[in-house]
Amino acid sequence: MPQREPKPVALWRFGLLLAAMRLGGMLEVVLKPFPRKIRRLPGWRPGISIVIPERGTPDVLERTIQAATEAAEHLGEESEFIIAVNGAPLSAYAQLQHRFPQVRWLHSERPLGFSGAIEWGIKEARFDWVYLLNSDMFLAADALVELMPWRAAHVFAIASQIFFADASRRREETGWTGFRVEGGLVEIFDVPPEDATTVRGHLYAGGGASLFRRELLLRFLPRSHPYNPVYWEDVEWGVRAWQAGYEVLFCPTSHATHLHRATVSRVFSKGELERILWRNQLLFSMRNGFLRRSRWTLVGGPAGGWDAATRRDLTRIRQALSLVRAWWTRARSPARSVDLERVHRKFYLQPPQAGRSTVIVVSPFAVYPPSHGGARRIANLLHHLAREFNIVLLSDEESLYDASAMRKGTGPIAVHLTASSRADAPGVPQRIARIRSHSHARIQAETERLAASYGADLVQIEYVELAALIEKQKTQIPWCITLHDVLLSETGESAEDQFESRLIAQYDAVIACSREDAALVRHKRLVVVPNSVMAPDRYVPSRGSRRLLFTGPFRYQPNLAGILSFLETVYPALCREIPDVELWVLGGRNAGSIARQYANFDQPGVRVVDHVDDVAPWLEACALTINPLTGVRGSSIKLLESVGFGRVCVSTEEGARGFRDLRSDALLIVPKVEHFLSPLHELLLDEERRLLLEKPDKQVLASISWDRAAVIQTDLYRELLRATN
């Protein structure tokens, strides 16, 4: 019998859907200023529940249960298996029921759809963490064990890495998820992991091979029923979780193998699957604010473009009501402003340790790899502070990070990245404009989200450039700021001085890097945590070298000005007296292109090098280092690194700020750059005297160690935490 043509959809139903979107937009505007607070969940009981939604694939299911059982046997916790059979006779599973008596079998003659089946199973689960497993997914023996350490109060879900059973197929599914927006429509995709071990953030954990916090999943599940029977509901869970203040992780060391659509291909035709995918893509884009009324015509609208079944599905009255509820929920979400485009730029380096206080550290500049003095200071202090605290690093300059650099970070439990295009502010004093530019809305929102999500005990701000973050902070925990360079004048009368001083005064504690800087700051709780050095395990004498070394990224203007001054006033004369002298300049990113703009660099023996991850080999290869800086605040880490590695450093008096009284023979201080010629000439030619001066002194190294500096900062944190408890 030929199928009857579906009845046309009344136009008023399209109007209902359009009205729902308009109402949702109004709710968004009205409710946005009144977000809910992030609600942290209590601890969880040990154990996991493995829930498998099943419809008509008992032949494949047998292998799935067997593999999951073996994986569960490796756990040091209890486990249970729940299989929600729906839309298929239970009699088809009689043999499996006999073979796997530990499994709890739920049965519904009526098809429940994916979200309906798992909701049923999850409500029956005993444990606080639930692993959702497709009936055509086979777990590796250690798949569950690898996930367990990453459970945390701020985590909603942890996805396993997925491989196809047919290894020759292109990997369209990996478990690490992302998205892009084209014309208002969200397109989701999986990408191969950047490395085999680092746990990462991502948009959503697929409902076929992921571990979920049960209480949160039960909260999000009813909102995903409009996607029935299948697809995109887990994407909505992920977005809802991020906006509720929880995080979604991807664990590449937890492996699962997918037979790929072994279930849905038996239930739905290829054409119907494609239609459901398209419908739910459209639905998700509308429900989550990507597709707004202004883009209505791009997806067909009332004029046509949708097939009849999709028109019926999307214009039901309950669909319109569900759309309004979705916009309401999103508008009130506590972390609604989370930057979903950058959730994949989150690196989870080690699980948080229970019983430790959590510190959120925020930097406007890249920390890993530590390519400049400020980054090396932060990286070294975090390495030591991590012995007592769970450190969460939030950093701007996202583009300067890569996965390989993250693996070298020894300190933070997680690194979160953000970025913003900073614009000049004409007419605004430079220091004020710089603070306003760096303290942008994205880093402000992410600082607030991380503090609430992780239940942080303290926020540590790095650099005065982020001082304005204190203006909108809503937490009741201590906020501390490190002023790497104190730019305040001695009188403190300028508009810039007053602006900075007003912000600094709002912090619970202030850290300066030198006594000279501290003398310029007025604050009730001011501590000096000096720049320091991590000395190498071995000392390599500079015998046979006539190479000078300057390290300093050109992005810091005093570095560029200092080396240009040296090249103009000292280096030509030094070359005339010592023809084989060389000068290596480690100028940071884009140093080569910057140097080509100045004729001073075009001299014999001068070599300009862009960014290097490790300065140690360059220090070992040189005879002396130079520090020809003027007009600086803070203190120079390059000076201490030279002393620590056993190299004499010739520095200006201004460049030695903070270490003028350092009792080290390896530090030679002269008044100005033009006075460098005599000591450099003498020490390059008199090798024995140079070797005598450069040899590291254990007492000096102990006084400038990062261990010592970290103790001072740790004591400050303890004092602040005691005051709030």
Summary, kept brief:
This protein has 725 residues and is α/β, with parallel strands linked by helices. It is built from 26 helices and 25 strands. The longest helix has 21 residues.
Quick check: average pLDDT?
90
CATH class of the largest domain: Alpha Beta
Total tally of structural domains = 3
- Share of helix, binned: 25-40%
CATH superfamily of the largest domain: Spore Coat Polysaccharide Biosynthesis Protein SpsA, Chain A
Shape: elongated
The CATH architecture of the largest domain can be named as: Alpha-Beta Complex
CATH topology group of the largest domain: Spore Coat Polysaccharide Biosynthesis Protein SpsA, Chain A
Radius of gyration: 31 Å
Query: How many beta strands in the DSSP annotation?
Result: 25
* Largest sheet features: 17 strands, mixed
- Poorly predicted spans: 294-299
- Class by SSE composition: alpha/beta
- Give the distance, in angstroms, between the N- and C-terminal Cα atoms: 76 Å
Please give the count of helices. Answer: 26
Strand content: 15-25%
